[in-house]
Amino acid sequence: MNAKPETKEVRTGHLIAYSSLIIAILYAIHLFLILDDSVVKQLLINSKQKPSENAIGVIKNSFQFTGVMYVIANLTGVIAIWNRHTYLWWFMFAVFASQILYNLVNINAVFEAILDVKSMVNILPLTIVLIMSFVLAVYMLVVSIKRKSTFNR
User: Fold this and answer.
1) Orientation of helix 107-117 relative to helix 37-46, angle to 10°
2) pLDDT at position 1
3) Is 20 in contact with 74 (CB distance < 8 Å)?
4) CA distance 127 to 121
5) pTM
6) How far is CA 26 from CA 1, 86, 112, 150, in A?
7) What whole-number percentage of the chain has pLDDT above 90?
8) For a 10 Å CB count at each end of the chain, is N or C smaller?
9) Distances from the Cα of 1 to the Cαs of 4, 11, 116, 122, in angstroms?
10) What 8-state DSSP symbol labels residue 150?
11) pLDDT mean over 100-107
12) How many Å apart are CA 25 and CA 39, to the nearest integer?
């Protein structure tokens, strides 16, 4: 049994893979368990809009449609366990960076609506997703500059 020691490339790939899996799970929890009709209704009330059933459905579907795309994109990071390709590196960097920007657009309104309807614990999944995405994006940028390559290739 000749055990090959883990290289920086393998460790980095596993970090990105498992972190993106955790992000996908937490973001799905936020989208489908926390962001329900009552939160969207409160979001509309807080913005001084009339919360009709149609408006609630449209806003909820919009959040969930875009969110599902981010969940799927984050799940592609699991590929880094087996295949660590340069394109995957930059794709995951783009996913993390765009996920942060997308959620920061209306983060205050969403958090306020969640806190009005539910408890403080319910903002944790999205908060953790944003923090992990930011840390991973910065880490990936620093590693690519420091190594002058991605996944040590």
Assistant:
1) 120
2) 45
3) yes
4) 10
5) 0.89
6) 38, 26, 19, 26
7) 73
8) N
9) 9, 21, 58, 48
10) S
11) 94
12) 20
